[in-house]
């Protein structure tokens, strides 16, 4: 019970820091002025950390002191989390693009600079930066590397928790409760992301340099695309929690006393029913003390044994492709909601944490409960896993109809009033109405005209006067606001215009479908775990889970955020620019293109994974006789084997005589 509680808290801690990273994706992108593809590399570095040591940890760790290895992992994980927050204390203060009058009311400049001798503030600032010999080494230009290294360290520390923790439970728990315990651990772990996203919501409301600058002087609001929250604060909190989570494991024993029902055998009863032992003596000797060299000799035979199991291989392929879909979707979900529905980072994280994550928790727990209540065997677990995937992706299809139209941005999504659309947006930003102004196309300092159209900057809107300072600045005599035949004075206010009237309603529909989809996909989580554990030999459980996790990390966790990020970058309409020149973070996306790329990629991958899941079910049916299928439905016989049907029947007599005891029947 102590181990179960401690492992649950560790799952909570690692899930909290992992989900907090997801919630800060857009903040990191803006703070370090980097594109989504590079943020994807940072996100994938966690999996690279796993890749470095997961085979060693899962194989040798199973034969060493498992609880202490988990405790050491927690310390490493906390060190990485602290490292991620460090750049904030070494970088300069965050600077955003703003017209001078919005920063200092004593400066009086016309946004539209008709006098060519006057230089716009942003251009002047950039030219001064370029003159500085240390421009390429400007503070913060490469600080994102520390975030990447910290996340890499987090990945290394997290490695032993899953393969060693889950198998420790499966080894020492009463068999009929194993699935429920694993379901409980995973469910408690889901509370981590709830707190992670809520923490992300809280920190996103606070300005990035809180405590370092006067907040009254900040001229942007959380609704602004340039707003960066106190992203670093949450990492400090998550690091402390990781340290606390690791403490109990240093005081737990290497082995626990086995339950009475399992003392007579080191194998589980369901293992005994559908796995044929080639050499029982070899299996028994596994549990005896062996030298490290002898362990290493058994490595490649064990690997060959795993990859010779068709059910394991097919389920591995299905999982890899499905996790590509899910990891990419979850990583960029906050960005998608912000860009598609015009929500703030704070509200986005709050909604995901309070609505989506509990649905996932309920789904995972439901999967474990269904398996225990109905005594579902291996074949039933495969059916449940397939069904949840199929209906989940079917629901996801409906989200294509729940998007918002592009915001009206002059020169990017709509032409200037009275002009024709121009294919090249860089040329389209300039029009007759602002031809007398000396404007930069690289700036992003949006204002909202009284006609409901957003303009990239006050200069490009042709505004010739301004009043007020900070967030309350109002611009007057804007030649591009309204039509040319309008004689009235046109004005604009700071910040972009709100999305269309239909957008809040679409956002509500999106949330409802998203919650149902999250629940449906999550129901298959626990059955999938049980399918893995019951289709391999007992002494290979840790190794099999380690290989499974390795494959997910390498082939899904690392590439998915990167290529999803690259695909999302292709939908960008307006890029920001760095102070020393070069492309920065994206300021505006094409809503329709973003929707089709983001949801389309998710659905295509999900559909492919379903085909592999069907193959798993087909192989399981083929490997089992009709009698096996009947018994499997009652939870009395498994339907998973690694031998051919011929070998199965040849060994069936020995299988029943030597390993089948009625009192050890398993009902998961």
Automatic annotation (TrEMBL):
Domain Major facilitator superfamily (MFS) profile intervals: 3-624
A single cellular component GO annotation: basolateral plasma membrane
Principal cellular location given in the protein's record: membrane
Compartmental location: Cell membrane
Membrane-crossing residue ranges in chain numbering: 41-62, 69-90, 178-208, 228-252, 312-330, 350-370, 382-402, 506-533, 545-568, 597-620
Keywords: Cell membrane, Disulfide bond, Glycoprotein, Ion transport, Lipid transport, Membrane, Transmembrane, Transmembrane helix, Transport
Membrane topology of this protein: Multi-pass membrane protein
SUPFAM superfamilies assigned to the protein according to its UniProt record, in alphabetical order: Kazal-type serine protease inhibitors, MFS general substrate transporter
GO molecular function: bile acid transmembrane transporter activity; sodium-independent organic anion transmembrane transporter activity
GO biological process, one term: sodium-independent organic anion transport
Name of the protein described by the UniProt record: Solute carrier organic anion transporter family member
Lineage: Eukaryota, Metazoa, Chordata, Craniata, Vertebrata
